[in-house]
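**Reference record**
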Amino acid sequence: MAADSHDPNAEPIPDSGSHGLAGSSRPASGDPIDALIGRLYQAAIEPEAWAVFLDELARVVRADTMALLATDTAGRALHDLTFAVGTDQKADRDYRDYFFGLDPWAKAGVLEVPVGSVGPSEQFVPESELTRTEFYHDYYRPNGWHHGFGAKLFEDGEGMVGSVTGHRGRQAGPFGPEELQTLSRLVPHLRRALRVRGELEAAAAERDASEQLLERVSIGTLLVDGDGQIVFANRIAEGLLAARDGLSSGPHGLEAASSQQTAELRRAIAGAAETSQGRGHSAGGRFRVARPSGRQPYLVEVTPIQRGAALWGSSRSLAAVLVTDGNGSTQPDVDALRSFYRLTPAEAELAALLAQGMSLADAADVRGVSRNTARGQLKRIFSKTGTNRQAELVRLIVQGPAGFTHKP
C-alpha cells in the first residue's frame, strides 16, 4: 500500500481512535489513556520518560515488551530514536546487529502501510509463516514472544519510518480489539509528541551551533530580552561583565556605570527587541560607554535579531548587544577580510577599523587618507560585501569568520 502523503502537522488529535485497522468504539470511562497521554507529552520534553511511557503502555495492553523504533528502510538500519522496555541488552544488541535484517514484518511491507495504521502481527505475517523463519526460531521464540502488534507513526519521505510495537508470548494469545483500540487512540498523540521532540532537538542543535559561533566571535556578544535581562553572553562578554568596568549585570538586567547611560542603553534594547518581534522600527543604537577605570570607553552596538526568542528558549523578543573594547583587544582579521570579500589591502584596513567602532572620519585620519578617499573606499566595500550601511557592514564583519581573531 502507498504511504500516507498528507501533512502530519495538520492532523487533528481526536478523542477516540480513528486511524487504525481496529474498531473505533471508545473505551469505557476510567481507562488509563489520560495518564498515558500525559506521559507521552512529558517524553516529548524529557526523553528518559519514553521508557516510563512504554512500560505503562505494556502493562495496559498486557504486552511483555514495547518498543519505539526509527527505521532507515533504505539502509536497513535502526536510528537513535529507539526505546524499548521488557528486553535485555543482549536481545537489543542481537536485534540491532543481525535479526533486524531478518524481521519478517519489515519484509512483508509493514513499513509501507499508511501512517497511523494499527494492526496485529498476524495481519501481515500469518502465524504459519512466522514459525518457519530463522527470525522466529533463533530470536523471537527464545525471548518468549509469539504474538505482536504495532502502529506506523511517521514517514519523513527520505526513508525514515517510525513505529511502535509490542510483543507477548503464545499463551497470552493474539492482541485483540481492546488492545488495538488502546494503541489506536494513542497514535495521534504519539505522532505529535515525536514531532514536538524532533522540533526541540532541532532547535537545541541550532542553538548549540549558534553558541559555538558566538563564542568564536572576537567581541563581547550578549543576547538580552526587552528588559535588558541577559539570556546569553559569550566568554568575552562574561569577562567584561565580571570586570564591572563600565558594564555589569545587575538585578534589573544589563547596566552601564552611570544611570544616564543605563537608561540610554535600556531604551535602545527595548526598541531593538520590539523590532525583533516585528512590532517596531528601531534599529537599536551605538554608544560609547564610559569606564570608571579611565580606560578607553566600550563601543556598544544594540541591534535587533531575527528568530531570537524561539531559538534561545525565551518567551520574549530579544536584542543583541555587541561590545568592543576601545583599547583594541579585539580586532578583525584583515587578511581574512581580503580573502572572504575580495577587498584590497586599503579597503580591508578601513573595514577593520570601522568594525572596531571608529567613525569614518577617525578611520581616515588613522590611515592618513582624505575623507573623500575613505568614502570612496567605503562605497566599494559596500558593493563587495553586499551591504548598504556602516552598521550593517560592522555586523557582517564581527559576526562572520573575519571577526574571529582575538588579540590579547
Residues 177-216 form the longest helix (40 residues). The chain has three domains: 8-203, 217-329, 331-408. The mean pLDDT is 79. The CA atoms of residues 44 and 193 lie 5 Å apart.
